[in-house]
Amino acid sequence: MTKYLQFTQQDLQLAxxxxxxxxxVAFPTETVYGLGANALDEQAVRxxxxxxxxPSDNPLIVHVWNKQQIYQVASHVSADAExxxxxxxxxxxxxxxxKSSIIPSVVTAGFSTVAIRMxxxxxxxxxxxxxxxxxTAPSANxxxxxxxxxxxxxxxDMDGKISAVxxxxxCEVGIESTVLDLTHEQPLVLRPGVxxxxxxxxxxxxxxxxxxxxxxxxxxxxxRYKHYAPKVPMALNTDGNVQKICNFxxxxxxxxxNPVLLVAEPSKFxxxxxxxxxxxxxxxxxNLFENLRKLxxxxxxxxxxxxxxxxxxxxxxxxxxxxxxxxxF
Length: 329
Description:
By secondary structure, the chain is of the alpha/beta class. Helices cover 35% and strands 17% of the residues. It has helices spanning 9-20, 42-52, 67-73, 79-88, 105-108, 122-131, 151-158, 197-204, 242-254, 281-298, 311-323, and strands spanning 3-5, 25-27, 34-38, 61-63, 93-98, 113-117, 135-136, 164-166, 178-181, 188-191, 209-210, 234-237, 259-263, 274-276, 301-305. The radius of gyration is 20 Å and the shape is globular. 50% of the residues are buried.
């Protein structure tokens, strides 16, 4: 029986105790809900992979609630890492550093590096403080599914599989954190997020590279496998051509599908079934995974269109391309 806990002192103490006892507890962050396990407990971490159906060669992010814990999790904190910690943490950014010997290799999928994050969410840090151990926390969903941004979406995937869900706020950002590799001289963004390369460059005062090849095998959580996919087929348009999108939609109808458009301006599509993807990048990100989960319940094909060229827009596009399994037109 999965317990559904609130942010009371009693429930927070219980949640922390469950994690220390090797159990799994889902909790809110500002990005998506995470599935928390004691990062120092190899068996607890293994149970995370089982609950999610996640490949064990996909490394996990270790969540901490204060700066001191970072020095326990990492064997070396570079000058660049210090700058990121002091200027962008707590925040929606994860840094990759050499791992400490206290972190089991199952956490890092055998890599000698570890990904570390201090969430911006006050609720997340309150939970982590009550755990009083570093906590691994991939998104609290079945592997390859859209990440959950409300506790009810966690319930859909995890009820009966984990010990507890901390029922907190809906997630503000809506997509996962930026992952920044700081193990080499040149900082490298392995996964884009709301914290942009430009923000990182401003803090570090040096150029930052970005992994742009979606097939590249990098030591980053959340980039090596199919991700964020709804249960129904999905296609993505990236140029906003209304006629092209309408033609694609109509061809699906002719094939017998019941499609839906996920677009910025539904009124432009001549009465075709359409839902607003969002007016701003922030709205699109906040609603993205929730939209995919809602639409898969009422339609059997999703056709999304998104063509922002901002830095954050690039991060959203990254998620959409993966949600559509690279089916882009």
